Amino acid sequence: MRQKNMTAEDNKFRTVLENMRYKKCTPSDIAFLRSRISANVPGADSICKSEFRNVPMITALNIDKDEINQIGCERFAAENMSNLTNFYSEDVARQSNDNALDEKRTKKKLLSIKEMTDDVQKLLWSLNHSSSDSHVPSKLSLCVNMPVMIRRNLATELCITKGQEGTVYGWQTKKGSRGQLMLDVLFIKLINLPDGKIVEITGLPKNVVPVYSTTNSMQITLPNGCAVNVTREQVEVLPNFAMTDFASQGKTRPINVVDINNCKDYHGIYTALSRGSTASGTLLIQGFSPRKLTEHKYVDTREEFRELEILDEITRLQYENQICSSIKGTYRQDLIKAYQKWKGKHYVPKNVPSAIKWSSKDPWKQFDLDEVKWQIIMKSDTNNQSADNQNFYIPSMGLFGKRKLHISPEATPENSPMKKKKSVGYIMPKFGPTWENNSCAYDSVIAVFLAIWSSNPTVWYDTFMHSSNEVQVVLAQHLEKYNNGIVTLNEVRDAVHTKLYSNAPSTFEWGKYTVAGLICDALLNINTTVFTGTYTCPKNQNHLLDRPNLTLHSSLLDSTEPYDSISDWIHHHYHTTRHKCSSCNTNIHILYSMNVYPPIIAFQLSQPDQGKDIPYIEMTLTVQDASNKNQKYSLSGIIYFGEAHYTARIIDQDGKVWYYDGIADNGRFSYNGNINTDNIQLHKRGQKQAAVAIYALDIENLNS
What we know:
Layout: H1 8-21, H2 27-35, H3 50-53, E1 57-59, H4 62-79, E2 85-88, E3 90-93, H5 99-106, E4 110-111, H6 118-125, E5 139-142, E6 147-150, E7 165-175, E8 181-190, E9 208-221, E10 227-235, E11 237-239, E12 242-244, E13 256-258, H7 266-273, E14 282-284, H8 302-319, H9 332-343, H10 440-455, H11 457-465, H12 470-483, H13 489-503, H14 516-523, E15 531-536, E16 550-552, E17 556-558, H15 566-571, E18 574-580, E19 587-594, E20 600-604, E21 620-624, E22 630-642, E23 645-651, E24 656-660, E25 670-674, E26 684-685, E27 688-697, H16 699-703
Parallel strand pairs: 1-12, 1-13, 4-10, 13-14, 17-20
Antiparallel strand pairs: 2-5, 3-10, 6-7, 6-11, 7-8, 8-9, 9-10, 15-16, 15-19, 18-19, 20-27, 21-22, 22-23, 22-27, 23-24, 24-25, 26-27
Helix pairs in contact: 1-2, 8-9, 10-11, 11-12, 12-13
């Protein structure tokens, strides 16, 4: 908390704020708050006192903020014997591409104006600052030394950030299209900088920074409630005599003047009051309704806070290595139940605030709820969606659809297991897993393996079940359950993740980022030697090297060596070592040869944040075995990485390319074209770079 003083008044203030968080203020708390209301009587603090006079007031409503700022500008100029200078914006009418969509978003009737007439411009100049949805003012009335607040992040390293406070130091002006005076540059002297930071710009005094005018598209609300779209040029600052409780978040104020009368609920009141660091520096402008701060039968968030306190205690014990080994769980309810089984249901950690402590008189009302798996709903491109996509629409939990849909309540993309088809042949899956808790690397790998599996579930089930890799066995078992409608794809992914975590907890932690190549490596590692590495001299293979051969048990190939293509890689796979040949002093190579022909081969094309040229990705690979028989592999999928997120492309047996993103569109596969007829770049997809290419042995070779 910001309140660190230890006076009796400050202790009362801390107690008020703690109880306020849980909407459990007591009569003594209300009495203390009322003692901090401004009053012009002896012994009481008043807004008229000098220490409170020019402090920005925190209020709830934008309309109040605008009025206070306007009055504050006039008062400040009069008290300092300065003249206010009005700086106007330059507005241009902007045509919306979709008025109906804009109206739906803003719930306001949108007026279309073809050009900005003088009358319309004068009307816009007369409006309050908050009439703009981005709060860019149409008119700024300023004078030197007036307090202002920057409203845009322009240069973080120079503290020119949204919410930074300062005073007007000077300005440079220009003329607008209607001859109006406009700001070109406003010079602001920054105040209340973090940690005593000093900003120095060549040619300007210490802590003085330039703020340039910017041009932004916005929507303006007119006095009649309608709205217009405009493009506005203006310096993005506001007078700083008042701010909303929202804008005050993150600030610490030794002198904190607030108006909490119009706050919607106790959340806003807590935000406003908790900005103050001292009780003596906190001043309320007027009275307030105590009902907003005391318990109400319809609004009780104590159960949520109690759960958070238990989770906080579990985190502390884990950090201090004092937690019982049985306290495990993926979801909140699992952890809390395990903790209560260990400590007992009535145990209350010592740091739980008194306002939310549970007892036999005030029990903790726990509910056994099924965990709801999160889905991020993305707006689909209706032109590319098939009609059957409508069969998967379900309103969000707790909401009601506008009309009744005659579908099964379980019919969602994630919860609809893939039905068995009577026809025999390749059935391209429609969905992959949906993203949950940083699962994109697992999602993308499972999506590719699902596509491989779907080419012939019977053959691939036998292949995986007879593997020495336990992760492959788990994958086969759960894909078979998915095929029979028993589990969902997310449950398939989680089962594989659970097995990976049990084998390597630090590599495959729940909720943490991991590399898709590591997942593939764990899936493709078997007891049999897949590759044998022989030490050779690249200059002369006759040079004798007294080194034992190496063995690789994974069919994931990773290399930092440059290869022209995947074929070049598989046929000339080598690794340059630091060791020198005793005959010619050349760096020794390890040359790898394939011992067995695994069902799936993967190539680690790039690592996150690794600058590496990606070799040409062929659709097929042909490898000759010991009996001179050609073994053919086909490209099944490519996993991409970029912008801290994994996605994948699936290539089916007909050459059709499908794009998969576990976050977008519920994990639905979207058609990208045909590799045989369309110019599709496989080494990248948008801003994402190919990370892993996965090839599967052709079915006829797999059966042989």
